[in-house]
Amino acid sequence: QVQLVESGGGLVQAGGSLRLSCTASGRIFAINTMGWYRQAPGKQRELVATITSGGTTAYADSVKGRFTISRDNAVNPLYLQMNSLKPEDTAVYYCNAKLISSSIMLNYWGQGTQVTVSS
Predict the structure, then answer these.
(1) What is the pLDDT of residue 78?
(2) Closest C-alpha among 92, 85, 110, 76 to residue 18
(3) What is the pLDDT of residue 74?
(4) Residue ranges of the chain with pLDDT lower than 50?
(5) Which among 6, 8, 10, 66 has most CB atoms closer than 10 A?
(6) CA gap 71, 36 in Å, rounded
(7) How far is it, in rounded angstroms, from Cα 102 to Cα 79?
(8) Distances from the Cα of 6 to the Cαs of 93, 101, 106, in angstroms?
(9) From edge to edge, which strands make up the β-sheet containing 67-71?
């Protein structure tokens, strides 16, 4: 089991910045990949950025050059630095952890943190 707790969301004007944090507990040694996803009202949850245990990162095209995913050590804490925010970035942001157990990929999610960007 892995528990994830996000923080750092809030209300910001367009062009502003926010930093989200995610702290993991439990079987963190088994985590393979961590990432951030978001879900806007009426839309499906979408990938924002991921980082593997080896440090390889990947980003959605919509956030490349504006968002940066990082972490302090191998897993914890996980951060998402969001710059040049746009109203279309408004969503609930979720921290995700993936680990492999008995050859099965398991997904764990945080409770989500609201990010609202005003125009």
Answers:
(1) 95
(2) 85
(3) 65
(4) none
(5) 6
(6) 12
(7) 29
(8) 9, 24, 19
(9) 2-7, 18-26, 78-82, 67-71
Which runs of consecutive H residues, i.e. helices, occur in the chain?
none
Per-residue DSSP letter, 43: S
Confidence (pLDDT) at 72: 80
User: What's the pLDDT score for residue 7?
Assistant: 94
Between CA 18 and CA 59 the distance in angstroms is 17
The CA-atom distances, in angstroms, between 67 and each of 3, 17, 50 are: 24, 9, 11
Give CA–CA dist 51/42, Å, rounded: 27
- Pairing type for strands 10-13 and 113-118 reads parallel
Separation of CA 104 from chain center: 22
Tokens, residue 98: 């993936």
Q: Which helix (H) or strand (E) holds 104?
A: strand 104-109
